[in-house]
Amino acid sequence: MLGQKVWLITGTSSGFGRRLTGVALARGDRVIATARTLSKIEHFPQHPNLHLMQLDVNASTREIKARIDRAARVWNGIDVLVNNAGYGLPSLLEEGGASLMFRQFQTNFFGVVNVCNAVLPYMRKRYSQERNGTVVVIGSRSAWKPESRVNNFSVQLKALVTAMFWRAKMINHSLIFLPGFYAASKAAVHTMSESMALELKPFNIRVLLVEPGAFRTEGILGHQWDCSNPIPDYDEQRADGCVNFSKPAGKQPGDPDKAMEIVVDVVKGEGCATGREWPLYLVLGKDAEADIRNKCAKVLKHLDDWNDVVRGVDLV
């Protein structure tokens, strides 16, 4: 993709969004950097190709459209949309219930839908065989692996003793915390991105689904475990979740600066993306690769083990 591009990036106050803003500017492009609270990005160094704008992806559809209309007038269009704004609400599914799931989906899913729908008319208007529009969606490997094993020796030892005593499999509910709300929202974003890629292909608008593993970004595990609706049967799981959920913070293996350089490479067809076909999926991190390979192997094994059942339901 040649020439100077106009990027609109949501959620730029920290994490991937802040870093992507800097990388895109350094590579000669223009950036409309947005955040829910403008004061959180007003400290960004002044730059002729940087425009700061308040945008809350939880706002109404009408308000989001009005904000995007304003953004599109800054440099007469938007070439690259990056749906980065999002967060995770840690809780057990039954305890958090539908209200917590609605909150999670409002930001991570419906926010993406509303921003995309507001930007796409401008991309369709500009498209041609020479000029591409690009929609980037920051997903997660959690869409592939919604369960995470707790690295806690005392908990593992307890589970081992329990398993030996009962001659059971070494699976104990205290070994696992489930980021189910976050994973569900990212799984929804994943499938929506696949559908959107097909619908937008005739307009020369490309979709890039970024699926990162664990990256060392600030605040990613900052939310407290929701304990507002404790159910006694889950006391042990909840306690483990509260203690262990934020432990990986500051120890994640992924370098977010390297990740965002790669995203810009792919969007612009430069660097590591030179000469390669457009990827719908951009998996980042060895941990993400391992999780996705394991999930694919698990599903394929199910198809093999249950092949007669899978194929035995057609009308004769």
Which helices and strands appear, and what pairs or packs with what?
Layout: E1 6-9, H1 15-26, E2 30-35, E3 50-54, H2 61-74, E4 80-83, H3 93-126, E5 133-138, E6 148-149, H4 153-166, E7 176-177, H5 180-200, E8 205-212, H6 235-244, H7 256-268, E9 281-284, H8 286-305, H9 307-310
Parallel strand pairs: 1-2, 1-4, 2-3, 4-5, 5-8, 8-9
Antiparallel strand pairs: 6-7
Helix pairs in contact: 1-7, 2-3, 3-5
For this entry, give a set of tags:
single chain, 316 residues, alpha/beta, seven-stranded parallel β-sheet, 9 helices, 9 strands
What do these coordinates show?
It is built from nine helices and nine strands. Residues 150-176 have low confidence and may be disordered. The chain is an alpha/beta fold and 316 residues long. It has helices at residues 15-26, 61-74, 93-126, 153-166, 180-200, 235-244, 256-268, 286-305, 307-310; strands spanning 6-9, 30-35, 50-54, 80-83, 133-138, 148-149, 176-177, 205-212, 281-284. The chain starts with 5 loop residues before the first strand and ends in a 6-residue tail after the last helix. The protein is globular. The strands form two sheets. Strands 3-2-1-4-5-8-9 form a seven-stranded parallel beta sheet, with helices on both faces.
